[in-house]
Amino acid sequence: MLESGASEAQLVQAEAIFKVQQKIFTVLQTTSSALQSSGVSASEAISLAAQAIGRAIVAQSEGPSFDINSSLSDITNTAVRLVFNPTDSSDPLVLAKVAALAGEINQVNQQIDSSYTGLAAIQNAQANGLGLNQEQEYLLANAKAVAGFSQSNLIVSGADIANASSVSIVNLAVEHVANQLNDLPALVNHQLNPDEPITGTLSAAAFEQLISVGASFDAISLIGIDHASDALRFAANEHVVSVTFSAVTTDFNVALNEASFRTSLESGIFNKIHGGLTLTVQNVTNITNAIEIANSDAVASITMQHPAYWLDANGNQGGNGYHTID
Questions:
Q1: Is the pLDDT of residue 146 over 70?
Q2: Which residues of 112-146 are buried (b: 16+ CB within 10 A; e: fewer)?
Q3: Pairwise CA distance, residues 211 & 186, whole Å
Q4: Percent of the chain beyond pLDDT 70?
Q5: Residue 4 — pLDDT band, cuts 50, 70, 90?
Q6: Half-sphere exposure of 224 (CA within 13 A, CB side)
Q7: Region 19-40: what's the mean pLDDT?
């Protein structure tokens, strides 16, 4: 705790020490929690993580101009490798886990470094009975949001990475954390200015969270959508102007009946969705409609409605039943 009336130099020094402390704690907590999620006891996980951090600091400190703050990214990379790849395995999944976990910790620690800047001055102002201006209110709220993220979202993602059975699952966890970090400014701004419409880019989770608390929107782009059905659902929202699939999703297909397809087409929903949406249009009533629907770029296949007629390979009218047109 800073004393009332601390000098500017004392504030700068105290803030620098606090940042380093918090960033090292983030490495320790995330790494040990990921170990615990894999079945390691809490005491052993903390011990292993702490030892790895200590060894990494010692290795870095042997350089000619060691500074722990500027070296923290390298310290993190080394510590995570020592914990999760102590034998220097070349297994692609092991290497992906190490890179992903270290990358996420470094990303959050960068947020801590930037969002905690000015906290010492705020604490000093409060200690002297001074009110905070609008910028300081935002800085304080943002710092709390980043702190909460490091205590929750990052730990959950670390566990997902540690227990991932494939590189694609690791990549999905990394993408989700990046999207969630991107959401923080909008969430903080809504907390401080609840009547101000939200605009910009959000993850689907943040969009739904803000909807649940009655937020208003203006031109939202949604990113990291995992399922085609969700992409279609979000694109139907009047405030959503763009929907982009996750970089690692494989679920691009959704089935619609003819009426739903036409309604969506007329409302421009398909034009909002980017990244590979494919449609199966079911129960199409006749071949004329089928040919018309097939002209849509997003349509991958069409199923005819019984007893609609279909055309054979020579263009002649054929039998009845369900048929798929690719």
A1: yes
A2: bbebbebbbbbbbeeeeeeeeeeebebbbbbbebb
A3: 13
A4: 91
A5: low
A6: 20
A7: 95
Sheet of strand 198-203, all strands in order from the earlier edge strand to the far edge: 198-203, 217-225, 240-245, 273-274
Q: What is the amino acid identity at position 281?
A: V
Amino acid at position 226, single letter: D
Nearest to 306 by CA among 316, 319, 294, 315: 319
Does 183 or 295 have the greater pLDDT score?
Answer: 183
Residue 238: strand, helix, or coil: coil
Cβ pair 146, 184 in contact under 8 A: yes
* DSSP conformation letters of 121-184: HHHHHHHTTPPP-HHHHHHHHHHHHHHHHHHTHHHHHHHHHHT-SSHHHHHHHHHHHHHHHHHH
> Tens of pLDDT along 109-130?
999 999 999 888 888 888 777 8
Residues near 221 by beta carbon (within 8 Å), at least 6 away in sequence: 200, 201, 202, 240, 241, 242, 243, 244
pLDDT recorded at residue 127: 79
For tokens 């059905």, the residue is 229
Rounded Cα–Cα distance for residues 140 and 208 (Å): 25
Q: Which residue has the tokens 């803000």?
A: 210
Q: Are 155 and 33 in contact (CB under 8 A)?
A: yes
> What DSSP state is assigned to residue 81?
H
Rg for the chain, CA atoms, rounded: 26
SS3 percent helix, strand, coil of the chain, rounded to 5, is: 60, 15, 30
Distance of alpha carbon 56 from alpha carbon 79, whole angstroms: 6
Write down the pTM of the prediction.
Answer: 0.81
- The answer to whether residues 78 and 59 touch, using CB atoms and an 8 Å cutoff, is yes
Tokens of 325: 């047109």
- The confidence score (pLDDT) of residue 318 equals 55
